């Protein structure tokens, strides 16, 4: 028995002495490759590497190292992404916006640390938000710095002026690229939003829901009481706040803008018919009832003042409550929408609500969210018609664009893929319209000339 255990110990000793790390004097540095960078944002990046040969010695650590100067090593920042050979993925975090980083994959064995080829990337520029201090401070970017086409600027401005525009603003990453005023207008002159202001009502309704004051899936009569329409009570109780946001209340849209009960008449069950209707304004009454405040006070406190839209106000006109503000205030709202409901790190309205608002809200009009118009859909409806049009809303505009469109060509275009917000205020470009017009398509063909 003693002889047996002695032999076993000898075998174990031989096996241990033959491991890669301890006995193979032919071990070398590993072979490692830095793979193309997968993606990056303002503060993070996803990278990868491949250890194709361990150099006859176990790989005890591998990952990506990075620095703001060339030839980064593991003495700089690094990830640790397992052991052994093969491909690995690394997530770099806590980066600085608008900064160039150099990266190399690494692999460590008993001989030392081997490095792959060096790659670099520049993190995205951080989104800018103008201060809420009432000043005119607003950072800018030049056409040249974006690599855009300077020769396309003047034809665009000439067209805007020809089409009776008052103002035109282009933001990229929150910074002003173009800001122009026409026909006696100025940066301090207020102008009406018309139906582009519907999106203000949508946003504030979302805020009230976020605060637990109402639920858009509840029927409107939960907040206004029964009899707010002249529809039969069973039909009235089918209408939810979401129906008002989605323009499918089933109420008659051919009776004008009057929203008194006698003028809100049943045509179809809620959810079965899309029609552009001023009845959405009842959401303002619902918010007022749910919050115990006036609509104006709740709006000012929870949206306007939080994003610095100083001086804007709701003005009664022809029985309608219409929002008036400067063009820059309209741009502030568009910037908040671009940032999915956040303003400089502060949540104004939840990302979840903004995502719902900027996506198709019902099955009839694919190009309509919660009072926002949506580009890039396969079909759309327009105000005052039940006809379904094939194709996208504005073919020359980016497909991910969503927009606030108001009578006589008041525009807020939000383009997430380009981190862009565009504002147009003014008189009607051509004939009177309620939202979309031929002007949008021609205008976008000139806007796209800037960057294509």
Short description:
The chain has helices at residues 2-17, 20-23, 143-146, 153-162, 198-210, 221-224, 233-236, 241-246, 282-291, 295-304, 327-338, 351-357, 438-451; strands at 31-34, 39-40, 45-53, 61-67, 77-78, 86-92, 100-108, 113-115, 119-122, 165-172, 175-181, 191-192, 313-317, 320-325, 342-343, 346-347, 373-374, 379-380, 389-390, 402-406, 410-415, 420-426. The protein is an alpha+beta fold.
Key phrases:
single chain; 452 residues; alpha+beta; six-stranded antiparallel β-sheet; 13 helices
Helix and strand arrangement:
Blueprint: H1 2-17, H2 20-23, E1 31-34, E2 39-40, E3 45-53, E4 61-67, E5 77-78, E6 86-92, E7 100-108, E8 113-115, E9 119-122, H3 143-146, H4 153-162, E10 165-172, E11 175-181, E12 191-192, H5 198-210, H6 221-224, H7 233-236, H8 241-246, H9 282-291, H10 295-304, E13 313-317, E14 320-325, H11 327-338, E15 342-343, E16 346-347, H12 351-357, E17 373-374, E18 379-380, E19 389-390, E20 402-406, E21 410-415, E22 420-426, H13 438-451
Antiparallel strand pairs: 1-3, 2-3, 3-6, 4-5, 4-7, 7-8, 7-9, 10-11, 10-22, 12-14, 13-14, 15-16, 17-20, 18-19, 20-21, 21-22
């Amino acid at each position: 028995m003693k002889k047996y255990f002695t032999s076993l110990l000898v075998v174990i000793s031989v096996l241990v002495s033959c491991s890669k790390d301890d006995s193979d004097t032919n071990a070398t540095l590993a072979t490692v490759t830095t793979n193309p960078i997968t993606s990056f944002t303002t503060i993070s990046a996803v990278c990868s590497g491949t250890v194709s040969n361990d150099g006859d010695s176990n790989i005890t650590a591998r990952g990506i190292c990075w620095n703001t100067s060339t030839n980064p090593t593991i003495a700089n920042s690094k990830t640790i992404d397992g052991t052994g050979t093969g491909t690995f993925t690394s997530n770099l975090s806590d980066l600085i916006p608008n900064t160039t980083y150099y990266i190399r994959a690494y692999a460590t064995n008993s001989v030392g640390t081997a490095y792959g080829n060096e790659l670099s990337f520049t993190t995205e520029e951080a989104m800018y938000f103008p201060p809420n201090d009432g000043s005119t401070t607003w950072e800018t970017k030049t056409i040249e710095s974006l690599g855009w086409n300077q020769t396309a600027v003047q034809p665009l401005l000439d067209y805007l002026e020809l089409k009776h525009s008052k103002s035109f603003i282009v933001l990229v990453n929150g910074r002003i690229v173009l800001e122009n005023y026409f026909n006696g207008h100025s940066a301090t002159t207020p102008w009406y939003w018309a139906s582009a202001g519907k999106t203000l009502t949508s946003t504030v309704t979302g805020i009230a829901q976020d605060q637990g004051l109402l639920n858009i899936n509840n029927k409107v009569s939960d907040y206004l009481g029964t009899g707010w329409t002249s529809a039969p009570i069973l039909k009235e109780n089918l209408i939810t706040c979401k129906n008002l946001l989605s323009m499918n209340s089933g109420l008659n849209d051919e009776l004008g803008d009057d929203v008194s009960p006698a003028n809100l008449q049943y045509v179809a069950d809620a959810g079965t018919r899309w029609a552009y209707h001023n009845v959405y304004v009842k959401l303002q009454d619902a918010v007022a009832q749910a919050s115990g405040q006036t609509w104006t006070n709740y709006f000012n406190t929870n949206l306007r003042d939080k994003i610095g839209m100083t001086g804007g106000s709701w003005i009664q006109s022809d029985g309608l409550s219409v929002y008036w503000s400067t063009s820059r205030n309209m741009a502030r709202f568009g910037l908040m929408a671009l940032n999915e409901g956040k303003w400089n790190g502060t949540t104004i309205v939840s990302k979840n609500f903004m995502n719902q608002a900027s996506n198709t809200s019902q099955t009839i009009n694919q190009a309509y969210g919660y009072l926002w118009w949506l580009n890039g859909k396969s079909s759309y409806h327009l105000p005052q018609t039940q006809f379904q049009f094939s194709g996208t809303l504005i073919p020359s505009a980016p497909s991910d664009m969503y927009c606030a469109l108001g009578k006589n060509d008041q525009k807020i275009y939000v383009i997430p893929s380009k981190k862009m917000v565009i504002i147009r205020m003014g008189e009607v470009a051509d004939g009177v319209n309620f939202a979309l017009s031929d002007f949008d398509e021609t205008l976008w063909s000139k806007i796209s000339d800037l960057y294509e």
